Amino acid sequence: MINNYLNIKLVCLILSSIFLLQSCKIYRKKTATNDEAVEFDRGVKVITQDDKTYKFKRFIKEDGQLFGLTKKKL
Prior knowledge:
The chain is of the alpha+beta class. Strands 1-2 form a two-stranded antiparallel ribbon. The chain has helices at 2-22, 34-40; strands spanning 44-47, 53-56, 58-62, 65-69. It contains two helices and four strands.
């Protein structure tokens, strides 16, 4: 009986750890130019001069224009 309780507790701990780690998003604090952000190909956080924050999955540069990809909002 005690062995079953420990197994259930272990499984719950592992599952909760997996769910918590999947929702993590890491943004580096290093400032970068637009070209470096395009090459970085990871999550990018943009802070404008009027302190608005935008989060993008990545940046794409096409025909000299800069585009930021985000998740679809439902």
